[in-house]
Amino acid sequence: MLLTQIVNNIKAKMLCDIKGCIDGIDAVGVTSNSRSVEPGYIFVAVKGATIDGHRFISDAIKKEASAIVIDSDFTKQESFKIPSIAVQDTREALVVTLNQFLGNPPERIFAVTGTNGKTTITHILWHIFTESGEKTGIIGTLGFAYEDGIHQNLPVTTPGAEMLWKILANMKKRGITNVALEASSHGLDQKRVWGVDFTAAIFSNFSQDHLDYHGDMVNYLRSKCMLFEECSQDCVSVVNLDDPASSKIIEVNHGILLTYAIENESADIVAHPGYMDFSGSRFGLKTPWGNFDIETNLPGRFNVYNVMASTAAAMATGYQPEEVIKALDNFEGIKGRFQLIKMGQPFEVVIDYAHTPDALRNLIDTVREITEENVIVVFGAGGDRDHNKRPIMGGIATELADFAVITSDNPRSEDPERIIDMIESGVTRENYNRNSDRKEAIIEAIIRAKPGDTVLIAGKGHEDYQIFANETIHFDDAETAKEAIMQICK
């Protein structure tokens, strides 16, 4: 592809200056990773959260890049021996260029953002679409998957733009028409999904998380708003009207607004919760397409919201109510999200990813509602992440559960005991124990459980590893719980 053609497409959006002749130069690819540069590639220097791609321009030139794309405020551009293209935003320029080389992504992409619920909502959407006979892809916390549903791991919830566009291009080659995508706050803030034309954008909820990155709740919410600011006019924006942050989302939204709620009867879609137990939930649903009785295998009020969000997005984009309801009825849930461990024990054991204050509160509240006797919770907090939420979670656990075992999560570079100290500073009652060995903590909780109790093991969910300062080990909450039950209840 001629470099002049690429520059002309960039020019319409953000071009500031060109140095060096670009006539007749052929570009064969594009990358923002200097290690991936091949002869004839365009190297786009992107400023990351910790690394500035401009530092690696000389490496790209040595590897015979055909041109470089740089920020307009980069001061050393005059010294380059190959064409340099200065732009207002290299992240956006990267996406424009990727689009030219890789082509447009699948036709219908559904993005979900919010503090909690993203993974469940995308998987419900994936299930609805596949049950309707359409080839569907999914991208998020559990990795990415094509129509066969087998996940391939990703390093982060929302992959970087280069990886994302390659995944989307591969999905289109496979004939995939629909994609359900988790849009994380990091992904939105770093413009990883910028330039994607979404069919629907979903806002689930907003509560404290990731303040180690965003700094404060204002910046955190601002990142969530970016998805709706960038929506096209024909994108359906599905917003949880019960969440206080919805007013800000609605204020900046450019798409077709569709709201859902349990508490706010003025919403377009309203649920009237009925009966729920460990086997699932049943509730009435009022929608613009009619009123329906919903049965789902997902228990809990928070899952009613997840089901509503998915239902709203699907029905608003052309799916018939009867096929949506049928899919909801046979959706079995996903690993690590209110996952029941059934080994014949006389008490319930639930594995869940809840790792934020709001998620932990919702989880304990849900279990309390359907548990006959005591609720025992095992939880910790991740190292090198938001410190402020640790005492809050300690307070929630000891206030709402009958007993808590405070343990290690993924301590990373931090001392697990120091993390537990911070959690312990927020406890409200003396109904807890601390044990930094997660396996021992899980065993302790299961030993404590009596008939009619529920043991909640929160924080890691689907993860099958534990990250320490010097190593990452295999660790699976579900496996550990099963082993403990077999030993204790045999």
Please characterize this protein's 3D structure.
It is a single chain. By secondary structure, this protein is of the alpha/beta class. The chain is globular, with a radius of gyration of 24 Å. It has helices spanning 3-11, 57-62, 90-102, 118-131, 161-173, 185-189, 211-214, 217-229, 246-252, 301-316, 321-329, 357-370, 389-400, 416-424, 438-448, 477-488, and strands spanning 15-19, 29-31, 41-44, 67-71, 84-87, 108-113, 136-140, 143-145, 178-182, 200-203, 236-240, 256-261, 269-277, 280-287, 290-296, 339-340, 348-352, 375-379, 403-406, 432-434, 454-458, 465-467, 472-474. The protein has 16 helices and 23 strands. Helix content is 34%, strand content 22%.
Topology:
Elements: H1 3-11, E1 15-19, E2 29-31, E3 41-44, H2 57-62, E4 67-71, E5 84-87, H3 90-102, E6 108-113, H4 118-131, E7 136-140, E8 143-145, H5 161-173, E9 178-182, H6 185-189, E10 200-203, H7 211-214, H8 217-229, E11 236-240, H9 246-252, E12 256-261, E13 269-277, E14 280-287, E15 290-296, H10 301-316, H11 321-329, E16 339-340, E17 348-352, H12 357-370, E18 375-379, H13 389-400, E19 403-406, H14 416-424, E20 432-434, H15 438-448, E21 454-458, E22 465-467, E23 472-474, H16 477-488
Parallel strand pairs: 2-3, 3-4, 4-5, 6-9, 6-10, 7-9, 10-11, 11-12, 12-13, 17-21, 18-19, 18-21, 19-20
Antiparallel strand pairs: 1-5, 7-8, 13-14, 14-15, 16-17, 22-23
